[in-house]
Structures are given as C-alpha cells and as structure tokens.
Prior knowledge:
Blueprint lengths: L11 E3 L5 E3 L2 E3 L5 H13 L4 E3 L7 H13 L9 E6 L6 H15 L4 E6 L36 H13 L3 E7 L3 H10 L6 E5 L7 H10 L2 E5 L23 H10 L3 H11 L3 E2 L6 H8 L8 H8 L10 H9 L8
Parallel strand pairs: 3-4, 4-5, 5-6, 6-7, 7-8, 8-9, 9-10
Antiparallel strand pairs: 1-2
Amino acid sequence: MTRAEDSSPMPTQLLATGSRMPLIGLGLWKIPRPIVADTVVEAIRLGYRHLDGACDYGNEKEVGEGIRRAIDEGLCTREELWVTSKLWNTYHRGDHVVMALERSLEDLGLDYLDLYLVHFPIALEFVPFETRYPPEWVLDPQADTPMMSSARVPLSETWRAMEALADEGLARDIGVCNYNTGLLRDCLNYANRPPAVLQVESHPYLTQSKLLKFCSEQDIAVTAFSPLGALSYVELGMAEADDAVLAQPAVIDIAGRLGKTPAQVVLRWGIQRGTSIVPKTTKVERLAENAALFDFELTGEDMQTIAALNRNQRFNDPGVFGEAAFNTFMPIYD
C-alpha cells in the first residue's frame, strides 16, 4: 500500500509530497501523562489515525505506549497511523536536529515519523538530555530570574537538517509551525524540500485568511491547532471564559438549525475552509463528537457568518506569555 492511498477511516488531505494526512487528529498538548496512553487507544478505537504530539508536551513515551497497545489489540497497523512530532527550540542547531528526532522516536517506540515540524521559529540555547528533558522554555529554572536564552542559529540551518532527516526516511514529511508569510517566503527561497505542512493557531477569532491563501498558492497544507479557540487556554490564564467562540449566538443558531453541537459547527468550519484540525480532549464522548463532522455541510452563508467573528485574537503568543511566564520578551508576530 502506498502513502498516497487512502486507507484511513477518516477523510484525508493530499499533500504536495503525495502523502495523505488525516483531516482530524488528536491534539496531545496538555493531556496528562497518566491518561495519555488510554486516550490514544480510545481515539484510535473511534477511528482516529492522526496523533499530533511534540517533544515539549512531555508525554511521548505514554503516546508510544498507547500506539503499541492499539497495534497489539489489532485496532490499526503502524502504516495506518499518521504520527506528528515537533522539533523543540533548544535543538535548532544542525547537529542537534537529528538527535532530537531520534529521542522522540525512541520515546514513541517508532522507526519513523510521518511528519516532523519545527515547533517555533525561535532558537534557544541547547540543553543536554541529561540536564533536562523536555527542556521547556527557560535555560536555568533554578535561577533567581529564570529566562529564555536565545541562540544564534539561522532558520536555514535548521531547515537543512530537517531536509536531511527526510532524505534518510526518519521523517517522511517535514514542515513548520507558527511561521508567518514572511518566514515562509524566506524558507521557500532556500528549501530543497518545501514545507509540506504549516501548523498554526486558527479558529473563528483568528481566521488567518491571508496566510491560508498564500499556503494554498504554494501548495502547503495547513493544520489548525486550537481550532476551538480559547478552550485550551482558560485553565492556563491565557484566555478568559467569555472568550469562548462556542458561546457566540451565531454559532449556537447554526448548531441548532443543523442539529449539531457548537463545537462540531466550529470544527466543521475549520475543515470546510481547507485546513486539517487537531482538537484536544480526553473525554471519549468528545472524541466521538469531534470526529463526527462528515455527515453535514455548512452553507456559504454559514461559512461567512463564522468567518465574520474574526478578531485577530491570538491566544498562543510568545510575545505575550514569554514575558508573563518566563521573564523574556520573545515576539514572533507583529
């Protein structure tokens, strides 16, 4: 079976490389380690085949346990899964990229990744595995004032090393996260392998329409993280409860007309506008709900109504949380 064949229980998106990435993935950020394996198994049992993880999430060993259990139970084969991980900021130097990927593969118990992404366009000073893993954001957590420590590493060096991973088959596809159009243009100027996927925050309060149009023109697939908006950030103090797009009257009205939940309407909007999505949940009923998006469609008017909720409101912004949490101003968005 080739990568371009569609064996997933869920619809897939054809990438420029010929690979097919499932349109819905399970976002693994902030899922506590004690329940990650069970959550992965249940998601796969419900038909999920796309697992969106990262070194920085600190739960890749448990994700790997879930994958092994699902395969052992006959729920899927490795080839039917799409497993994504991400290169953390402290591993941007060329000689650190491969070791970072190999550590993720070891923790996941896999021979290759389907997709490896540069997590942020931010290079931080290297932290050895034996010092701290995952290394997180600050160089020295025990310092009187813990801060991030920038490293002088051009993104082109990091991308060259990412391409080498793809050439060796350790990552079948490569891409980037949290890039704007300027960084994408620069990357395309030096890339031998253009990014297959861009993963960015996107939801009705942050539609990113220009970025999506540019990616469409360049044949770069877009995955939306935090596709439901504020829900992932309220508990972190990075959003207020009344920031919830699901409480918008327009969304509630559309959901009522269609007999769907507000979350299903917002997630369907994300898919219907051409992005894949990686919502996070640990509840089995929500896993099922978030995947049940292909038996209805939004009208053109519905799509415009939801898009009109745009506020350019970003919840995941290092230029904001860097100062608040890590005593360091680290903007990547103007």
